[in-house]
Amino acid sequence: MEKPNTFTPHRCFLGQRLCLSDKDYVPGCGTYERKGYIYSTLAGTVKIVKQDKSSIIEVHSISDQSIVPAPGEIVTAKVTIVGQRFCKCVIKCIGETVLTRPYRGILRKEDVRATEKDRVEMIKCFRPGDIILARVLPMKEVHSYQLSTAENELGVVIAHSEEGVSMVPISWTEMQCPKTFVKEPRKVAKVVPETILVE
């Protein structure tokens, strides 16, 4: 495998192995490290940012979308499909930055809670349309980002009742419609931010 300084910036595809990851070359935006190699998280152009003791390998998309979800980051996502073993999401924000293009995410049953994982029922944690806070896990699939809500601060932050009213969290596991007082089960985030950057 060639070192980055032996080739000029070129185009790459999603999930492509770019080079070795070591003290000289570290992953930057648009890339991630796995088993000693740096991979691309999107299709785009490879760029090398030289620093004092190392070089950062970055990938910028052709559409100039420079920010992409990276392992360890907190994202805001909208739940689209809820199944028995996982739910599918659309990632809308990274931190407080609204993305110019959405990314697909998947939240598996075993990554919903830190404890009692075998007792998790997805339909009692999330519903389509819910807005959640989740942490990005290391990539295992090239077509979607794996997410986790297995922390107190992560989970559902906005949910609407059947009446279309924003529900209020009343416990770690329930939210309530202030209009009908009907309670619905959710994996509730500990803190509901004052402003969520998703319409």
Automatic annotation (TrEMBL):
One Pfam family matching this protein: ECR1_N
GO cellular component terms attached to this protein's record: cytoplasm; nuclear exosome (RNase complex); nucleolus
InterPro entries attached to this UniProt entry: Csl4, EXOSC1_C, Exosome_cplx_N_dom, NA-bd_OB-fold
Keyword Cell membrane listed: no
Main location (coarse class): nucleus
Alphabetized GO MF terms: RNA binding
Top-level taxon of origin: Eukaryota
The UniProt record lists the keyword Cytoplasm: yes
Domain Exosome complex component N-terminal: 15-49
Cited SUPFAM superfamilies: Nucleic acid-binding proteins, Ribosomal L27 protein-like
Keywords: Cytoplasm, Exosome
Domain Exosome complex component CSL4 C-terminal: 70-137
GO biological process: RNA processing
Location in or out of the cell: Nucleus, Nucleolus
Protein name: Exosome complex component CSL4
Upper taxonomic lineage: Eukaryota, Metazoa, Ecdysozoa, Arthropoda, Hexapoda
